[in-house]
What does this fold into?
Amino acid sequence: MKQKTCTLMLACLLLLACSNTKKLAGTGDAEKGWKKLFNGKDINDWFVKINHHNVGENYGNTFRVEDGMIRVSYDQYGDFNDQFGHLYYKTPFSHFQLRFEYRFVGKQQKGAPDYTLLNSGVMFHSQDPRTMLKEQDWPISIEMQLLGGLGDGKPRPTGNMCSPGTDVVYKGVVSPDHCINSTSKTYDGEQWVKGELIVEGSKLITHMINGDTVLQYSRPTIGGGVVKGYDPKYKKDGTLLSSGFIALQSEGQPVDFRNIEIKQLPDNNR
It folds into this structure.
């Protein structure tokens, strides 16, 4: 009897060990291929374009690194004066999975438009900022819009889509709306939220918040309005967007970003 019990216990331990090994192997496989876009120390691999300023001018030290985070701050500003800005990673991407964390902090900058309260975003399939004119407010791009709850008990989803100088196909038709709301929950206060983008060129784009799929659409195309001050030769309406630059947004609300990583995905259409 004792021998049978020992044998049974040994078998159970072996099964448990195999199960844990498989879990660890699966976790390792899931983490393969990820690359840090932000090293937690500096933004030497990124460059800035802020409205009313030339590319490369980080006016007011808007984008800075503190405590392992990229912080978007306005403590060296006066009036905001529509100085919408973006911090771009140095190379473009086409098929990729991007993950990051963000949180809203502090108060909205004086003079920033009302709609920018607890509002930021991550741009992708963006035009090269070196093609933007000094007085261009937004890059021609697609935006994963990030919103914070206003603490009033009303829903305010995050992980939405906005389309400066672009159009997208949503539910089978070209959307007439500049922004499309996601199905995400509302996140109040200064809590960290996990955002994720899965971009398959122009075929399919998926937004995820805290692990949940909250929005999908396809066929991002140059078109639409909203963008001002651009060079017309870079806004060829009807051009399908299958690649471009990734950028973190600054539009008047202090916000922190961290753990920004990317995994390049195969282009199955090749």
